[in-house]
Amino acid sequence: MLEYVALGLLVFVAIVLFYGVIVIHDIPYEIAVHRNHPHQDAIHVAGWISLFTLHVIWPFLWIWATLYRTDRGWGFSDGHSSKEHIERLELELAEVKQRINALEGGSE
């Protein structure tokens, strides 16, 4: 009787481990869905591929999934709106051009 209990426990543990690995590999995809990531399908497919690579690429999928958010995009902005940012850059460029002209005019 104890052998059957041990066998049942072994089968139960094997099933839990099998489905646990599948659930773990799907975490980056769930993050991508939650953040409305534009590459959700690619992250999901890459997650399945990571099963065959023994989850070597899985941490990179996690990073890829967490980089994007709908409110800030890819997160590389400096907090300025794009129009304000462009106007500020144009002003800086105009100042630099004036300084260059002043330097070139002074050397002649």
Automatic annotation (TrEMBL):
InterPro entries: UCP028770 (IPR011223)
Keyword Membrane: yes
Ranges annotated as spanning the membrane: 6-24, 45-65
Annotated keywords: Membrane, Transmembrane, Transmembrane helix
Pfam entry (one): DUF3302
Protein name per Swiss-Prot or TrEMBL: GTPase
Native species: Moritella yayanosii
Gene name in the database record: yiaW
